[in-house]
Amino acid sequence: MRAVIKIGGFAFPGRREGPLVREYVELLKELSSEFQIVAVAGGGEIARAYISAARELQVPESLCDQLGILVSRLNARLLVDGLGEYAYPEIPVTIDELKQYFSSGKIVGMGGLQPGHSTNAVAALAAETIRAEKFVNATDVDGVYTDDPAKNPTASKLDKVSIAQLMKLLSKNEITAGAYELMDPLALRIIQRSKIATTILDGRTPLNVAKALRGEQIGTSITRD
């Protein structure tokens, strides 16, 4: 079974509690006997720090995006190097390279591709490209809520959410470098057109990713209706 796992930047260096990348490396090694995997790394706090510094220097937004891409590729490099022989040794920077590296049968680690595309959108595009049966977005929250739970204590977690409903819930988010949240409109459009089975879950416990890939109900599933 082909699967794409988006690993948020929280898993990489810069996390106050310490990076989870070692746990993800071991998890990916284990899963590689059951799934052919593309792992997409986010940029996280380090990317946002660079983007913030660039904005203070009045750097154009597209170049701020490029900084985030470079950090996400650095995170992917760390993942691939940790995986050793389990992973393809190069980081794809184009869709053609992704297809070529994926044909090796090894885990492919990658970061961003081009300005204007979040790593969520890149992960969705990767899932479409390899015809993945499953796309898991491992985030630092445990799913999609009816409202921001940090601001609204009455918000409730949804086991399932339609693309239209999620679009509405996320419509107030900024679409600027470093501001992408659970998903963004481009990622959702790709998921919708490709009919990719998608789950958003709490990746701070890496085992949750394995549970989702193996069919357990966890986090929030995105439906197309």
The CATH H-level superfamily is: Acetylglutamate kinase-like
CATH architecture label name: 3-Layer(aba) Sandwich
DSSP helix fraction: 40-55%
What are the secondary-structure elements, in order, as H or E? EHEHHHEHEEEEHHEHE
Number of helices: 8
Structural class: alpha/beta
* CATH top-level class: Alpha Beta
* Largest sheet descriptor: 7 strands, mixed
Beta-strand content estimate: 15-25%
Q: Order of strands across the widest beta sheet? A: 3-2-1-4-8-9-7
Shape, principal axes of CA atoms: globular
How many domains? The number is 1
Rounded Rg: 16 Å
Overall pLDDT metric: 89
Model description:
The structure is a single chain. The protein is an alpha/beta fold. 40% of the residues lie in helices and 17% in strands. The chain has 8 helices and 9 strands. Strands 3-2-1-4-8-9-7 form a 7-stranded mixed beta sheet, sandwiched between helices. A two-stranded antiparallel sheet has the order 5-6. The relative contact order is 0.18.
List keywords for this structure.
8 helices; single chain; two-stranded antiparallel ribbon; 9 strands; 225 residues; globular; alpha/beta
